[in-house]
């Protein structure tokens, strides 16, 4: 079952429950997924669907960061929306799992002790492997912590 079908099913359930906030959040996610499919003029692959969900989460988090603290209504709405979106997001790698992937890349590139000069070379091979399953900031932090 595609993400579009999953989101639509969850949205119908939310409507039946009378949960307006959840329905609105799911409606926004559904429209983002449909728009991406329309732009592509074909069905989305699983990784493309995950990209859309992660993009929506990122945009909502940015909205949350930009919102003044006294606007509790917007803050609350964003937090609820993020919680709904995360139900459909792919499971992200933890720092330890990222470290294992980095170690594999280091072995692949024959780099025993990485330095800051090697970072570009490592990231070039590493990022395609973790795209969509790991947060880029966390990957960068874990890699930076491994430098001597």
Brief overview:
With 148 residues, this protein is an all-alpha fold. 73% of the residues lie in helices and 0% in strands. The protein starts with a helix and ends with a helix.
Explain this structure.
With 148 residues, this protein is an all-alpha fold. It has helices at residues 3-17, 20-40, 46-66, 72-86, 95-108, 119-130, 136-145. It folds into two domains: 3-86, Uncharacterised protein YqeY/AIM41, N-terminal domain (Hypothetical Protein Yqey, Chain: A, domain1, Orthogonal Bundle); 95-145, Arc Repressor Mutant, subunit A. Helix 5 packs across helix 6. The N and C termini lie far apart (46 Å).
* CATH homology group of the largest domain: Uncharacterised protein YqeY/AIM41, N-terminal domain
- Can you write the helix and strand succession as a string? HHHHHHH
Total count of domains: 2
Distance between the amino and carboxyl termini: 46 Å
The share of residues in helices is over 70%
Return residue spans where pLDDT drops below 50 for at least 5 consecutive residues.
none
What is the number of helical segments per DSSP (H or I, 4+ residues)? 7
Q: Major beta sheet, specifics? A: none
Task: Indicate the radius of gyration in whole angstroms.
Answer: 19 Å
> How large is the share of residues in beta strands?
under 5%
Query: Mean pLDDT across all residues, rounded?
Result: 88
The second-level CATH architecture of the largest domain is: Orthogonal Bundle
List how many beta strands DSSP finds.
Answer: 0
Could you name the CATH class of the largest domain? Mainly Alpha
Q: Please name the CATH topology of the largest domain.
A: Hypothetical Protein Yqey, Chain: A, domain1
Helix- and strand-based class?
mainly alpha
Please tell me what the overall shape is: globular
